[in-house]
Amino acid sequence: MLASARELFVTKGYVATTIADIARHARVAVDTVYATVGRKPALLREVLESALSGTDAVVPAEQRDYVKRSQQAARATDKITAYVEGLVRLQSRLAPVFLVVRDASGIDPDSAVEWTRIAERRARNMRMFAADLRTTGELRDDLSDAEVADIIWSMNGPEYWRLLVVDRGWPPERFGTHLVDAWTRILLSWRGGSP
């Protein structure tokens, strides 16, 4: 059901997709969708969570493999590289769904609540990443952790991915290389050499 919902939400849009469409596509009864997941906003939330985790279960950010690798790295560039590698794998499945939630939030109150919840969670995760980068002593002194988090937030969002990978045709690996290079140049202190 989640795969069918994801495909229809991404291709037709949230508003145009009905529970009946999802049930038909998944070859289950409408009542099965309602009994298993619930109403359409709940289904969209489940699709989003499965896109975030890559599984049917919610995986908190700090428990994701790429976040752990980033936290275990000693140097800022290694932290950034580990984070971006995970992000590139994540965005291909997440960005289309994220954009559905964003678009649905303008017309559906339940989706608006979900969008706000996800935005707050993303912001919290970016602040944790910025604080972790700060521990290396390699971040620029003239940027606060909040500013670092905002820069990362803006460049790891689904809109940026869509602009470069989908609209401009960049290979995902090129997008990743670009992010590592940009974040290294923008965020790290150069103190007499490369960060």
Task: Briefly summarize what is shown.
The chain is mostly helical. The protein has helices at residues 2-12, 19-26, 30-36, 40-53, 65-72, 76-105, 109-134, 145-155, 158-167, 172-187.
Structure description:
By secondary structure, the protein is mostly helical. The protein has a domain at 58-187: Tetracycline Repressor, domain 2, CATH 1.10.357. The chain is 72% helix and 0% strand. The protein contains ten helices and no strands. It has helices at 2-12, 19-26, 30-36, 40-53, 65-72, 76-105, 109-134, 145-155, 158-167, 172-187. It is elongated, with a radius of gyration of 18 Å. The model has no long low-confidence stretch (mean pLDDT 87).
Helicity level? over 70%
What string gives the helices and strands in order? HHHHHHHHHH
Q: What is the β-strand count?
A: 0
Return the structural class: mainly alpha
CATH topology category name of the domain at 58-187: Tetracycline Repressor, domain 2
CATH class of the domain at 58-187: Mainly Alpha
List keywords for this structure.
Tetracycline Repressor, domain 2; 195 residues; mainly alpha; 10 helices
Task: Describe the secondary-structure layout.
Blueprint (H helix, E strand, L loop, with lengths): L1 H11 L6 H8 L3 H7 L3 H14 L11 H8 L3 H30 L3 H26 L10 H11 L2 H10 L4 H16 L8
